[in-house]
Amino acid sequence: MDTTSPRLRMSLLGVVVAACFIALFARLWYLQALEAPELAVQATANRTRTVATEAPRGRIFDLKGRVIVDNRTSLIVSIDRNELKKVKDRDDLIARLADVLTANGAPIKISTIERRLAEKNSDQLQAVPIATDVTEEVIHRLSEYAEDFPSVTYERKTVRVYPYGTAASNVLGYTGRITAEILKKIEPGTDPDGVEKTYQPDSIVGMAGIESTYEKELRGTPGIELVQVDSKNRPVGTESYQPPKSGNDIQLHIDIEVQMRAEQALVERLDVLRGTSQRDGTVRGAPAGSVVVLDPRDGGVVALASAPSYDPQEFAAGISQERYNQLQNVNGASALIDRSITGQYAPGSTFKLVTAAAALSNGLIDANSSIYDDGVYRVGNPVQEFTNAGKEKYGNVNVVRGLTVSSDVYFYWLGDRMDGTTLIQDAATAFGFDKRTGIDLPNESAGYVLTKAEKKALSNKYPDAYPNGDWYTGDNVQL
User: How far from each other are the two terminal CA atoms of the chain, in whole angstroms?
Assistant: First the structure.
């Protein structure tokens, strides 16, 4: 067979061409009939993007209706990363922007601008905030020479403000930019209209205190804008817009005036104690402390002071790592720990009420049971002496007088009478000393009531610190 004949070659070519057309038409039919709906969805997604605008957070009021956390308008300078890509001399632009900000009361380093632009947890469509609370002079300068600052934008946003400064900072907490870890875990709430309060990679959230506990209530509903973009992801129009809605206001039981007085009294007392000698001769550092004021009528918390403290406004404006580290160590104590709910301390003489309740409820004493308080209580063999503060002598003391004058000797005697039992521990547990109170603040620690079994376990685990795991009469006396 002669395969070189022109007629045969033309026939083969015709077959190949026909096969190509059949394959092409088959592909077109597949795309139109089977994949058309999915491709249409992808096309819509490719030409629209969702841009969220943060809503003002709800305000916080004190017991008497005073605003203790509010919002205010802040001038913010930002950089549009999409527009920045078009700038020929990017480094020069950033350097000039840093110069303008620094010269007009908003000092910033070039490295700081670069770091903020490089953050990956920011929406690429949203401008990156570079400086907050800038002056009108900065805005005037950027407006006047707008052609010299392409991609640089400015706007007014609401930011958190704490009108009483450091007062109640451990209660109120602070806000900050959401982290990638929180963004993965946080569950958005809904507003009264059923609209979800969504979170974005640069959302502001409560990071501590009431701001954190009531995040769902305080958070507003973000404004949602459906933006049309071109093939290069540049905005070209708006399809729809849902305006932001403010979060809910909340009212606390805290009285800000009482709170400030408690904080002042605490600081003054720490200043008095600092540098003084204790009973064992050691010098008090007194770096920290707390004061709690309760309303005896309903148990409401009127004041919750903790020292050292901090200014939550520093976090609202964006705190540096250096400053954050400083707050972690203020004369050896962290300002970011609320000692009134997180610290675990011996209750001191307030525990006399528990000891009295244990003895009275179990019939070991009545209101008239008394002893002679000569300032010293002796127990054990060899004898150990336990004294009143200052070795004060109170004479005849019953439970009422014992509580009134805080007679240590009387309650040493009660502890001795309950030796060999768990009556004191049982009473402490009944009062909830081993549990959290359930206060609506994060990071509350449960109390701790020492028992014989726990002392034994501590001795087994830490023999150097607890060389003897046995329970002695002296343990009950001191309890």
Answer: 114
